Amino acid sequence: MNAPVRYQSKRYALQSLLLAAALSVLTLGVAYFIKDGIHLVAVPTAVSFGFVTLSSTVIAVLWRKVSEVNKEMLTTFYSAVPGFRMLAALATLTVCFFCVGRDAMVPYVIVFMAFYLAALTHHTLYFSRITNNN
Predict the structure, then answer these.
(1) Which of 5, 75, 94, 98 has the most neighbouring CB atoms within 10 Å?
(2) What is the distance between the alpha carbons of residues 101 and 131, in angstroms, rounded to a whole number?
(3) Could you count the other beta carbons within 10 Å of the beta carbon of residue 76?
(4) What span, in angstroms and rounded, lies between the C-alpha atoms of 37 and 42?
(5) CA 50 to CA 13: how far, in whole Å?
(6) DSSP, res 34
(7) Could you give the angle at which helices 74-100 and 37-69 cross, rounded to 10 degrees?
(8) Residue 120: alpha-carbon gap to chain centroid
(9) Please, what's the largest Cα pairwise distance for the chain?
(10) Nearest to 118 by CA among 89, 75, 87, 77
(11) Structure pTM?
């Protein structure tokens, strides 16, 4: 196995985990100062943290496999990942919609979109840096 690829894969997953943890602390910290805000965003923050952590771990593992097997497929991988992440995000929000109902979806959407956009930005910056260095 290519050691730099394995290292970069683990680094991406760790950075994503740290990003999600920092966003969770920030979200819960801001909500703490709003009256009953912590009750509104605790579960959406947990769902968003889980989504970002799981999706980033899967992306890191898949990137490592694609990079080891066929480097020519990396451009297709970079193009396809955001689309699949969006489909997974829509599926996650749909499940949340059926679980909590329409009236409680606003905190889910707001918190989830902040996490989603941060993860998407991290993905873009991380892999563009790797592509430019290689």
Answers:
(1) 5
(2) 42
(3) 11
(4) 8
(5) 13
(6) S
(7) 150
(8) 7
(9) 53
(10) 89
(11) 0.89
Average pLDDT score, the chain: 90
Ramachandran bin of 2, using left for φ above 0, alpha for ψ from -120 to 50, beta for the remaining angles: beta
- Token digits for 33? 């100062």
Asked whether residue 25 carries a pLDDT value surpassing 80, the answer given is yes
Q: In angstroms, rounded to a whole number, what is the distance separating the alpha carbons of residues 105 and 133?
A: 41
Question: How many residues would you count in the chain?
Answer: 134
- The pLDDT confidence band at residue 1, using thresholds 50, 70 and 90, is very low
The whole-angstrom separation of Cα 91 and Cα 132 is 33
What was the pLDDT predicted at 70? 86
Which tokens hold the place of 75? 């451009």
Q: Tell me the per-residue pLDDT of 65-120, one tens digit each, with 9 for 90 and over.
A: 998 888 888 888 888 999 999 999 999 999 999 999 888 899 999 999 999 999 99
How confident is the model over 34-47, as pLDDT tens digits?
877 778 888 999 99
Q: In the block, which residue shows the tokens 């991380």? A: 126
Contact 63, 130 (CB under 8 A): no
